[in-house]
Write a structure and sequence with these properties.
Elements (H helix, E strand, L loop, with lengths): L4 E3 L6 E3 L7 H20 L5 H8 L3 H9 L13 E2 L6 E2 L6 H21 L11
Antiparallel strand pairs: 1-2, 3-4
Helix pairs in contact: 1-2
Length: about 130
């Protein structure tokens, strides 16, 4: 049995890595921040990310990361938006807006179909024997 020892991504402490790349103390800190954000949003459902950051002392970047990681869901908070990483359009989940996600899925599908059609043609190497 091997014990995976790692440095915490947030604070740099050594810890026994079980599943996440942050130490138990930082996990506890994140959980407390999430509880604070959720409590604030229950009291202020129309708040935006900047208002939540000011009202909870949790940074804008931390709030956005919680949303992107799927740890903070915003079904009842319509003003909690941040920019899509690709086009800048406001979104409420993930890294991309719905349009960019659909467009990237189409491109991936098109590329996958293109590779299937190319199989057997032009692949391999030339040999004189």
């Amino acid at each position: 049995m091997t014990v995976a020892i790692a440095n915490c991504r947030r604070c740099g402490r050594l810890f026994n890595r079980v599943g996440r790349d942050i130490c138990p103390q930082c996990v506890k800190d994140e959980d407390e921040k999430l509880a604070t954000i959720r409590a604030y949003l229950r009291q202020h459902p129309l708040a935006n990310i900047y208002e939540v950051a000011n009202g909870t002392d949790v940074t804008y970047d931390e709030i956005v990361q919680f949303i992107r990681d799927g740890r903070l869901l915003l079904r009842n908070n319509p003003n909690m938006v941040y920019p899509c990483e690709r086009c800048g359009t406001p979104t409420q989940s993930g890294r991309l807006c719905a349009n960019c996600a659909k467009e990237m899925a189409r491109e991936l599908d098109r590329n996958a179909r293109g590779q299937e059609n190319d199989q057997g043609r032009g692949k391999g190497y030339y040999s004189k024997s």
